[in-house]
Amino acid sequence: MPRPRKPRTCICPHRVGFAAVFKPAGTPLKDLDLVQLAHDELDALHLCDGQGKTQEEAGACMGVSRGTVQRLLAAARSKVADVLVQQKALAISGGPGQATACHSTGSAKE
């Protein structure tokens, strides 16, 4: 039996509480392959690449280890690259979020 999943604090400010789908213009969604990006993968991508945090800082914000952030980030980058190169649709699954100080507009390095 696998170990229970550790709760994660995910609150990417742009996609809280709803799902979004991004696709190439001019192609109906029914004609595209759909790649699903989990909310925690999006949050790791946003924290590290969008806000310039280190994996360790992102892990502290999300309440997980640096290794978990590294795995989430690698998966997210791989999916986004596949979607862009292969012209697929990217679906972002919405998830419940909890506000944390790490996601404020101020610097977390203070």
TrEMBL record:
PANTHER family referenced in this protein's UniProt entry, alphabetically: PTHR37478, UPF0251 PROTEIN TK0562 (PTHR37478:SF2)
InterPro entries named among the record's database cross-references: RNA_pol_sigma_r3/r4-like, UPF0251, WH-like_DNA-bd_sf
Species lineage: Bacteria, Pseudomonadati, Thermodesulfobacteriota, Desulfuromonadia, Geobacterales
Annotated Gene3D superfamilies: Winged helix-like DNA-binding domain superfamily/Winged helix DNA-binding domain
Protein name as annotated: DUF134 domain-containing protein
Homology family: Belongs to the UPF0251 family.
